Structures are given as C-alpha cells and as structure tokens.
Amino acid sequence: MDGSVLNIATGASALATAFCVVLAVRSVFRARALEAEEAERRKGSGDEAEPEEAAPAEGRWGALASLLRPKTTEEMSQLRLRLARAGLRSQEAIELFNVARAIALLVGLFLFFVMMVGLGPSALILGSLVLGLAFYGPTLWLRVRTNARQEALQRSLPATLDLLVTCMEAGLGLEQAVARVAEEIDFSDPEMSEELSVVIGEMRAGLTTASAFKKLSDRVTSDEVRNLTNVIIQSATLGAALGRTLREYASSARRKRELALEELAGKVTAGLTLPLTLCLLPSAVIAMLGPAVVIVINSLFE
Question: How many CB atoms lie within 10 A of CB 112?
C-alpha cells in the first residue's frame, strides 16, 4: 500500500512539473513571437529612433498569468489601485501578482491531491485548509502589505506636514516645497517620500496640481492624508494662500491627534479591567483567605 501511494505521489509530482515546464516554454516562445512582431511593426513604420520598450507582461508570463488575470477593465483598474496602495506600481506588477496567485494555486492543488492520496478522506479538512490558504494567500499578503504601508504613511504625516509648512513659509512654491520634503524624509519615512516623489513626477509631466494630488488621495486610505490632499486641491483650485491654509490645517490636525491620544489613554483603563480581574482577583482572594483556611484546617485536626 505504501509503495503504491509513493508511486502515485511521484507520478503526480512529475505531472505537475511537466505542466509547469510546458507553461514556461510556451510563455518564452510567446514572448519572443511578440517581440518579433513589435520589431517588424517598428521597422515597417520607420520608427527606428524610438527606444525599445520592455516586452509586454502578458507575453512574458503567458498562460500562467492568464489563469487568474481580471477579465474586465474595471477589475483590472481595481487590482492596479490595490497594488499601488501597497507600493507596487511597476508595469509588470499586475502580471507578477497574477503569476504568484497561479503558482500558489497550482502548489495548493498538488498538496491537496497528495494529502488525499496519502492520508485518505481523513485529510479532507486539512487539504481544504491548505487549498484555501494557497488561493487566498497572495491576497492576504497584499492586504497585510497595504495596511502596513498605509499605517506608515499615517505615522509620517505629522513630520511631513510640519516640514511642508516650514518650506512654504520660507518662500518656496508648492512643487519645490514638496520636492524638498520628499528629499528630506527619504531616509526616515521612505513610504511618504516615495508617494511625494510620484506626485512631483506627475506634476512635472504636465498634470495639474489638483489632478496629481487627487491621484495621491486615491492611493492612500488614511483619512488624515486624504484630508490634507483635499485641502491642497481646494486651495489650488480656489487660489487661496496655501501656506496659511496648511498652517491652519496643521494646527487642527495636531489638535485632533492630541484628542485621539487622550481617547486611547482613556480606553486603557477599561481595557485593563478584564486582565486585572482574571489575574489579580484570584491571587488576592487566596492571599486573604489562605491564612484563615490554614487555621481552620489545623483546628479541625488537633
């Protein structure tokens, strides 16, 4: 019985390996075919001076990426936004994420099959958990990465706002102030520095201030960062004095942070009630009643 199970598992492993090799070879040949077609198109159009771009991610990853690729434009836009919120904004980020999901799913299917063959129906629950983890694992990883990045952006906002107000009061324009702040906080707050650098790049590429900061508000989930971008957008649209507006917003934001910290400090007492009751109350009862119990026991046995 053990030998037959081992043979089946070995055959399944070889089959999965062959399947992955076929997909990889197909992806390579498809990428080369697309590169050849692109070269012929450029040669025919006479556009020799244009630098070659990277091969399309769809052709590079081929069938693996197409397994779980979004089918509609709306789903593709939502996935691109989720990846941008996690700091993954390269051209191949979507396809790499889809490839990771496809590989995880194939590995999960293989492990599920091995468990079912090796352990029988008793491993159905464990195999289902492994398969579910393989399917939702990349999505959960993306969510964790997004939450960590958004928390880092929120933590870095006070220092960023103070530096921005200082630069604006020193006479710098908005674009120069944002660029200087992004340069200064590159080491201490790399996430905020990266986002501000993207904003500067979009503004220098021709986007208006409102459009660039609107995209920034879409890439973040922190309410404070979104409020800051809305303040900048409104000031740029209405033509208000941005330095004074930022100073007033910094004062109100600082007051809100103080109130939030006071609220958290007030919740500490309520949060300690249950641990103190469970940990200290039994010890206090034993300390108070222990001597009396000892005296009663001694008097009974004398």
Answer: 20
Residue pLDDT, tens place only, 54-87:
344 444 555 666 666 777 778 788 888 888 888 8
212, 233 Cβ separation under 8 angstroms: no
Q: Of 25-29, 211-215, 274-278, which has the strongest mean pLDDT?
A: 211-215
User: Long-range contacts for 229-234 (Cβ within 8 Å, ≥24 apart)?
Assistant: 232/174, 233/209
pLDDT in tens, 218-268: 888 878 788 888 888 887 777 777 777 788 787 777 788 788 888 888 888
Helix axes 124-169, 190-204, angle to 10 degrees: 70
Q: CA–CA separation, 289 vs 128, rounded Å?
A: 52
Tokens of 188: 């201490």
Q: Which amino acid does the sequence have at 182? A: A
Can you give the pTM of this predicted structure? 0.64
Alpha helices in 68-123 (DSSP H): 73-85, 93-119
Q: Where are the domains of the chain?
A: 2-150, 152-256
**Residue of 153, 209, 200 whose CA lies nearest to 179:** 200
Residue 26's contacts (CB-CB under 8 Å, 6 or more residues apart) are 62, 63
Report d(CA 55, CA 53) in Å as an integer: 6
Three-class DSSP category at 221:
coil
Q: Position 243: which residue type?
A: G
Q: Is 154 helix (H, G, I), strand (E, B) or coil?
A: helix
Query: What amino acid is encoded at 107 in this protein?
Result: V
Q: Would you say 248 and 234 are in contact if contact means Cβ atoms under 8 Å apart? A: no
207 alpha-carbon distance from chain centroid: 26
Greatest extent of the chain over all pairs of C-alpha atoms, in Å: 113
